[in-house]
Amino acid sequence: MASRIRPLAPALRTLPRTSPRALSSPLSVTPVAATTATSATGRLAAASSARRSLSLKSFFSSRKPKTDAFTSQFEPVLEQANLFHPLSKSPLPAVRAKADWIAAHGTCPVCKEEHEPKSQPPTYECPDCGYPTHCTEEHYKQDKENHKQHICGVLREVNEDEHDLRSGRRMKEFEFPGAQHRDEAINLSNWDTFLYTRGFLSMNSERSMRHVSHVLSYPLTIGSVLHQSSPYRLGKDLTVEGLKSLAALRHTLHPAVIPGITQAGNLRSTATHTVRIFCLGARAESHLPPHIYMQLAYLFPTTAFQIHFVGPDAIPPHTKSKEPHQHVHYEQMTFVYDNSRYEAYHAEAGPFNPYYDVFFLFSPGLAHPATRDMWKPTIPLLLDTKCAIFGTGFDENDIMNDVNEIENAGYELDWLMKPRENVFRSLKHEINMTDLRQSAQCNWGIWGIRGRRYDVKPTDE
Ligand SMILES: [Zn+2]
Ligand SMILES: [Zn+2]
Question: Which protein residues have their CB within 5 A of the ion that is ligand 2?
Fold first, then answer.
């Protein structure tokens, strides 16, 4: 199979690794690790100092029991009945550090409303969620009803989830299944049916679902759009143009079995095309270990994939390398990481073909002041390819800001998928640490567009 990767000239890699967006990005931290100081809501510099005391590597590489698969060799630090702790009194240093971070950078909502901008540091911890939500007990009591009604439950959930992730228990939910026989049907109606039909283990608590959905949201968001068993339907979610675009991609992704020529058993060897998925402005999605993306590959057993992570923060997992352009080969998949400017990358990666190429923009912030200008030269290039372009956002506002930005720019485009909730959004809430009243979910919503195609109509002579 011919490689569709072309290395870039060093001169093209001019962007610094950390752009202004890295500080303001809504999802600049890695899943799982994000629990130390998440920032889905934070187009704010919330996550810079307290995060990453926990790496994905610790979950995905070193926890396999060496002897008996059914006996944990790990001594849990925390029992399941003991997962709730006020942040400042947590047995885990990483969680205590978070309380310090909030005290230094957070806001007391009552102070904020009464005499902004002089807010006293939030150091009073709500007894129900354990987060330092207010400056004093007095301000807490004043605001208690509001706090309870809107965010306390979410904060409590996040508190326990974080302690669970660091509890030291064997996390069976992260022991993902391998390939399955191509005749076994996969149901992509929702997280439950997907996990069940793919044979995931131990998915019997909402907490496990939150952990796993957070890690798998990126590959499953891609897979659920592209797959022939997609939950998105013509008329309801997809436009006619959307169905046409996806039909082109599915033609490549689901090759027909021709009796006598291609057999179900050997289709893999007959795959002649590679589907290229371009993740632009990539951040957290590029930090996921390759085996997470294999869950996407297993949905399409006869297709080879290239995933291109492009953007100043596109950094491979488990590396401190400063190489601006890297390839990682992993079974059915090749990963390309490149932090050059997209305009330069585009010229190198073309030509593009709507049957083989698709773009994903995860929480791009098209309308956000810090990133808007960076996207302006990119979008027309993407529309020019006539390939499908899908985008996500972390809440309804974020989605609608992007959608309005696209509509107001006057591009010649067709909508493929109307903005809607993403079936495979992360179920985990991420808290804005500078203002605990705000939370969001990774890949909460999704939309799709494509550069407009004009059918040539015969003229009457
Ligand atoms: Zn206050
Ligand atoms: Zn509370």
Answer: 126, 128-129, 152
Alpha carbon of 14 to ligand 1 centroid (Å): 45
CA distance 90 to 98: 10
Which residue type does 265 have? G
Beta-strand pair 274-280/304-310: parallel
CA distance 131 to 151: 11
- Which long-range contacts link 65-73 to residues 24+ away (Cβ below 8 Å)? 65/170, 72/169, 72/170
**How is residue 439 written in tokens?**
């939370």
Between the CA of 398 and the centroid of ligand 1 the distance, in Å, is 29
> Over pLDDT 70: what percentage of the chain?
77
Q: Which residue has the tokens 């698969």?
A: 69
Q: What average pLDDT score do residues 137-153 get?
A: 96
DSSP 347-405: HHH----TTTEEEEESS--TT-TTTHHHHTTHHHHHHHTT-EEEEEESSHHHHHHHHHH
Residue 456's pLDDT band (boundaries 50, 70, 90)? low
Q: How far is the CA of 444 from the centre of ligand 1 (A)?
A: 31
Distance 144 CA to ligand 2 centre (A): 8
Q: Which residues make up the CATH 3.40.50 domain(s) of the chain?
A: 178-259+266-451
Model pTM?
0.81
**DSSP-derived 3-state class of residue 154:** helix
419-448 pLDDT, tens digit per residue, is 999 999 999 999 999 999 999 999 999 999
Q: Is 202 left (phi over 0), alpha (psi -120 to 50) or beta?
A: left
Query: If phi over 0 gives left and psi between -120 and 50 gives alpha, with beta otherwise, what is residue 130?
Result: left
C-alpha of residue 114 to centroid of ligand 1, in Å:
9
In the block, tokens 């932090």 appear at: 339
Instruction: Return the ligand number nearest the Cα of 132.
Output: 2
CB-based contacts of 460, cutoff 8 Å, min separation 6: none
CATH number at 178-259+266-451: 3.40.50
> Residue 314 contacts by C-beta under 8 Å, 6 or more apart in sequence?
279, 282, 283, 286, 337, 338, 339
For residue 351, say if its preceding peptide bond is cis, omega within 30 degrees of 0: yes
| Ligand index nearest the alpha carbon of residue 156 | 2
- State the distance from the centre of ligand 1 to the C-alpha of 89, rounded, in angstroms: 21
Q: Which of 461, 459, 455, 421 minimizes the C-alpha distance to 441?
A: 421
- Spatial distance between the Cα atoms of 18 and 20, rounded to a whole number of angstroms: 7
